[in-house]
C-alpha cells in the first residue's frame, strides 16, 4: 500500500517534524514517554493511539511546546526546536474541551486569534468566511455557542485553529465530547478539512476506529513506548506483536495461548497441528495463536484449520453478527454474515484459513517469522 503523503525526497530530503529519542520524566519522577522516535512528512496525517495513560497527550504536548522535553531532540524542518515556544513553532491545537467564548458569536470566536494579532478587518472577514465554508458554518456565523449542537461547537473550535494558517495542526481527542453519530460525521469532516488544507496533522485518540479511518500512519503506544508505526493496512494485516494485534480491529483478534507439543497446541477441546507453520525451536515453548473474528469461515471452502465449538451467544448487528463461542475453557468471537447466524447453544464447526493465522512468541509477544 502506498502512503498518500508526499515522500521524503519531494520535501527536500528531510522530514518536516522529527522526534529523536524523546523522553518525558515528570517532576514527580514518573517516566511517561520512553525513547520516542518518529519522522513526520509535510501534509501527513499521523494518529497516536493507545489505552489511557500510554503517553499520547504527553507526547503531543511536547510537540506543541506546552510541556518540556526531558531529553531527546525535537526538530522542525531539520532544526532543533526544543526551546521554541508554542507560537514560534507554527502550531495550532484543538483540545478535547473546546471552550468557546459564550458571549461571542461564532464569527467572533473564529476570528478571535486574528483580532488579537491586529489583522485587518477585511482580511479577517474573508478568512472567517472561507473557514466557515470549509466547516459548513456559513449559516451560523451570527449565533452564540449556546445555540449550537455539540458537533457545531466542535467545528467552531476547529475553525479557530485552522484560521491561523499554521503548518501543523495538533488535535487531542477532539471528538470525545460528541455522541456516537456526531463522531462519525465529524470524523468525515476532519478528513475533508485535512484534504482541503493539506496541513500536517497529529491527532491523539484512544479509539482505534478513529485512528484507522483518519490516519496516513498510526503510532500505537503502550506504557510510554511505541509498539508499532505503520499505515492502517500494515497494522491490521502485519501486527508486530500481540498488543497491536489485539488493539487494532473490532471485535479484537482472538488469541489462544498454549505450549507447543509435537508441533501442536490445544484450542479448548480441539488439537491443532501447527508443525508446518512453526519454527522447530518453538517446540516446548508457549505460543500465541491469533485469528480475526472476520477471518473465520463457516464452510470448508477455503480449507484451513477446523475447530469444533459451542455457540454461547449471538449478536445481530445488521449486515453481520457476532458469534460468541466456547470450546472447553477457550472462548472466541466470530463475525459472520447475519444470514449465516448460527443457533445458540448448538455445536458449530468453523474453519480458520491458514493465511489468516497469526503466530506470536508467548514469551516475547513478538510475531513469529
Ligand atoms: P489519556 O487517553 O487518558 O489522556 P494519555 O495516553 O494521553 O492518556 P498522558 O496524559 O500522556 O496519557 O499521561 C501519561 C502518563 O503520565 C499517565 O500515567 C499520567 O498519569 C502521567 N502524567 C500525566 N501528567 C503528569 C504530571 N503532570 N505529573 C506526573 N505524571 C503525569
What does this structure look like?
This protein is α+β, with helices and mostly antiparallel strands and 369 residues long. The protein has helices at 56-64, 106-116, 121-135, 150-162, 180-197, 208-214, 232-237, 242-247; strands at residues 17-25, 31-40, 45-49, 71-76, 79-80, 91-94, 168-172, 200-205, 217-222, 225-230, 254-259, 264-267, 270-273, 286-291, 305-316, 320-327, 330-337, 347-352, 358-361. Strands 6-7-8-3-9-10 form a six-stranded mixed beta sheet, sandwiched between helices. A four-stranded antiparallel beta sheet has the order 2-1-4-5, with helices on one face. Mean pLDDT is 92; it is low at 1-11. It binds adenosine-5'-triphosphate. Residues 26, 28, 30, 32, 50, 52-58, 206 line the site of adenosine-5'-triphosphate.
List keywords for this structure.
single chain, 369 residues, alpha+beta, Rossmann fold, OB fold (Dihydrolipoamide Acetyltransferase, E2P), 2 domains, six-stranded mixed β-sheet, four-stranded antiparallel β-sheet, 8 helices, 19 strands, 23% helix, 32% strand, disordered N terminus, binds adenosine-5'-triphosphate
